[in-house]
Structure formats: structure tokens, C-alpha cells
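Entry for the shared binder. Reason: the reviewer on the internal report wants the predicted structure included alongside the sequence.
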Amino acid sequence: MTVRAAWLQSTGQTREDTRLTLAALLTPSGQSPEETPLRSRSGIVPGGFVLTGSAPMQCTIGTGRAILQGKDTAQGSYLVAVTAPESFTLGDGDAQYDRIDLIELAVVDGSYDQGATTEAVLRLVKGTPAANPVAPVGGAGSALPLYTVRVPKGTSAGTGGVNWTTAVTTQHWAVVALGGIMPTSGFKGAYTGQYRDTAGLLQRWEGATSTWVSYPKAIGGIAPHGTVTTGTYTGQFRDNAGVLQRWDGTAWQYAEGKATILFSASQTSHQSIPFAVWTPVTLQTVDIDDFNGWNGTDTFTVPRTGWWRVSGHTAWTSDSFEGMRGTRVVVGGVGVPRMTWLTPAGGGPVVVGGQGLIKLTAGSTVQLSAYQTVPTAVRTLGGGGYSCNLSAEWIRS
């Protein structure tokens, strides 16, 4: 028959009927869409089959439960339980080379494994010593590798035996019931909507794209700093170094009204400004710089796209009472006309400047420039109650 049922007929139910139908409760697995519906994922129920070193050349495998998919799809899946610990004694090491031994859980079914004894067994498979040893091939039946143990050359109980901390490599993987969250990684999903926990991050299998898609650690909440680089849904929030951001479907945007950026730098020593040349003003003192955008001399790099309130002014000495004095905000090396101010020199120090709103893009540069029309150089005032200054405040995106 091609349609099988468990516990339907009064007589005649086969072992294959039972295994294949009960596998409806197990996580499917397979290398092709054709075989996946009838094959189950092999593995151990999390927490079982713990290996401990019980003597220099002896180890013990603890209790546990497991699922072993038969080699033949028609076999179905074998549900196995080890109800008491089992111990294994490893042979002494070779005189010349290391070797690798294998401990595996196996189901041998005489109906499929010709000539073999039908049994479920934990077994030790001894490896072959070699200059570059490899794990041995398992025995008959459908097997699940649990551990490999490297036995160094010359190892014996008399030399201290196997170092059970460093010699053992875990080979098994976890399995859960259908719909459960698999606590492991390194495998492709079997159906759309399957979940797994990998490195503490929840992921969902997208069947259409054949990829695992990560969810933030706090679904629906604010993802902690450094855990999410690409948003998984529009409206997701994350903490970006103490600043709240929202995923708009394409990129991270700063949450409006939730954070601000302040920058201010001032001049504390005189600077000579040449005749009729817009000259970047050197500002020695940083008053505040929330995002470390100042280069230390004369340039502020904008860390966030949006509308900014930028202000700047230059203070001039009384080196000359003639000509004009000017201040300009320069963005990307180009002066902004509506943020350019000129005034005639007076009978004492002169302060020239203003402020304005401007749309800036992250990565663009902002400078304060000074200008004067006296044929000889005129100095700015940096201190003594006066100071040149450039400041910027992010308003909104």
C-alpha cells in the first residue's frame, strides 16, 4: 500500500507503518524536495548522551533519547532511548602515530542491513593510526556519530591516559519535534516557517529565498547595540551607540524627536587672515562634540542626514579700522550664500556672523571661513573676552 496508517487495522500493522506515520511528529529533513516529506532529521534530544572521562582510558556516555532516520527512506525513523550510562575502554595508543576513535549510536535492522543482527547499540569504532589520522567509518546500520576521541601515540593508563578535556570532539547535533525551535545551526531549513536558535539569535527559514532570516533578540522591542546590522521589518528599532534608530525598509533612520546632536568649537588664539581670500578658521577648543565629528582644526563632518541649525561668527582685532569683515559657512568646500555675512570695520573689535537652517547629508563637511578687504593681514580675536565660533545642532530628518 502507498497510504499507511498507525493503529487503524485490527491486524497487519508493520513496523514500517508505525515508524513512517509517527514521523509526522518529527522535524522533516532531506537533500531534495522529493525525499524531505518522508524523511526525518536525525539527532539527539538536547541534553542527552553526555561524555565524561571515568578512568585514564575509559569514558562513560550518559542517558539520552535520539532519532535516527534509516538509510532507506522507506525505513522511516527509529526512536531510541538509552536508559542507563554505558562505558567504553579505549585501546592503548600506537607506538608511532596518533589515531582517532569514534563513538556512535546506531540502529541495525536486519530487514535492511543484510545479514546483520537487529539491534540498537552504542558502539566504539577504533580508528587507524596515521601521521594525519581521520575518524573511522561507522559500522553497519543507520548511525549517528556522537564523539570522536584522539588517542595520542604512546598513550596508556600508565602514562596518564587520554586528556578527556582536549581530546574529545562533539559530533552529534540536536533535534526537536515538528514546529520546535532547533538549538543549532549549520543546516538548511526543510519548510517555510521553520525556526532555529543560532548563537542566541532566533532565525526563520524563508522557503522562497532558501535563507535563514534573523529576528532581533527582543522581537518588537529595541534591538541592543551591535546585534542587528540590517533590519528585518519596517518599523524595527535599534540602539545605535546610545541613539535610537528606526528601519524604514531600506536603511536605518534616526528616530525623529528622540535624539539630538550638538557640536560647538571655539578659537582661543589669534589667526592672521590674508587680503580678500575666504580662509578656514582654526578653532582650538571643542566645547561639545556628541559624535566626534571634529577633525581638530577647522572641519566638522556631519554624522547624520537631516535639517541642521548652523551658526558661526568671527571676532576681529583692531589691527585696522578700514575695509570689510566677513564670515561664511562653507559646506563641502563651497560657501553657502544665505549663510554669508559682511560688515564694515569699526572703531574697535568687530564680531560678524549669524545662523540658519540647512539640509545636510551624513559625511558632508562644514567649515567656518573668514574674509577681510584690507591689503595687509588682519587678525581674528581668540580670547580676551572674544572668540570665533562654529556650532551645529541636528533638528530633524
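Summary line for the report: Residues 325 and 343 are 5 Å apart (CA to CA).
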